[in-house]
User: Fold this.
Amino acid sequence: MKIGIIGEGAIGGFVRGKLLERGHEVPALLLLPELLQHRGKEEGGTRLVSSASDLPDDIDHMIDCAGHMALKLHGPDILRRGINLTTVSIGALADPDLYNSLEQAATDGNAKLQLVSGAIGALDCLRAACVGKLESVVYVGRKPPQSWKGSPAEERVDLDNLKGSANIHFDGTARVAATEYPKNANVAAAVALAGIGFDRTKVQLIADPNVTENIHEIEATGDFGRFSFEIRGNALPDNPRSSALAAMSVVSKLEQEAQSICF
Assistant:
């Protein structure tokens, strides 16, 4: 497939490398205009563009690896062009206006916006549980203090000097978590969309000096019974806020779409 990527940060770089390893073409990178000021229009056979209108006509699929603002800026235009789009910026969908804009653009362009599972698993179980009555869903995100740098946690906790016990710096709904922590709470948004929604999903975010991994926990109850799930994930080497599994899930999702038999 010919795949375009939005962003060239830690996740974008990982995804691009893995896709090329697997024999896909990456003929275009969509980047902010300020990142292109001192660069040419092409690097190593890859076209560098700053808008969806400049993407090559033969792009099969676009992947957003650049965050909430990039999805808001480029997502509707890509979908209206009839190009399917996969995004890791699931937390951006907590904004109902953006959600509706993307949905309408996908309808107009006969395209799909595909959401990846990111750093968390068990979402298939949550989706299945929604067929019956799903009573409660709680997501707990626990990370080392340094992984919360650049988030509102800095204003609520002394991250540099946190020692001993863990500190809960957010306790609320998935909608508020995804809005306040756009770089850290995409998992909370994924859990909400797979389950009982942004406003009924409860979220706790914790800075814990006693852990070295990013730990995600889901607990759900309903007609199906009860389940709890935990995953301990490593960050990408280039960015302590970016999950390695989130980057891997992008490649996995794309390749599922190309398979004749898949989960």
